[in-house]
Hints:
The chain has ten helices and six strands; from the N terminus they run E-H-E-H-E-H-E-H-E-H-E-H-H-H-H-H. It is an alpha/beta fold. Strand 5 (100-103), helix 5 (108-119) and strand 6 form a beta-alpha-beta unit. Helix 7 (152-162) crosses helix 8 (167-174). The radius of gyration is 16 Å and the shape is globular.
Amino acid sequence: xxxxxxxxxxxxxxxxxxxxxxxxxxxxxxxxxxxxxxxxxxxxxxxxxxxxxxxxxxxxxxxxxxxxxxxxxxxxxxxxxxxxxxxxxxxxxxxxxxxxxxxxxxxxxxxxxxxxxxxxxxxxxxxxxxxxxxxxxxxxxxxxxxxxxxxxxxxxxxxxxxxxxxxxxxxxxxxxxxxxxxxxxxxxxxxxxxxxxxxxxxxxxxxxxx
Length: 210
């Protein structure tokens, strides 16, 4: 059972997400809050697997919440939710360590799929958000140095991760085992000096290496 915590200041939205999780197999809502003012205490008390995080919230917003969670609980997976396809906010969320980024208009099956994918070690972005991310980074000047130390297979795995594929889907695409994908990802983390799929994707897109 995947344990999920929700952060959303919109009462109707938050309650609808709670109901969705209650009615879906394999996931459960163990907490729901209006902002991230007590996010570290929340994480310590509840120990969730995945957090559904709104961006625009009073007191402590979602991006600051991601930074706090990743600082103290880096193993917790985070999916950002927003009504905006704001490139700067998308980049900030990925840089902070978020593993997923979905629009609030995403249908219920897509929300559950995003939770499942990030829990299994993948990344998830709705297609329109992924396109916006690509456009955003394509406008940035290429840095003087890129990660030339990545092997061809590691770059291929990283490319699939930037497309939002889970580790299992990457394995299927590359014709390798799930464990080999995990080994590639571990090497990617080491070489790029990152600690999450979100950070790896952010680095790869920013530095034009996929």
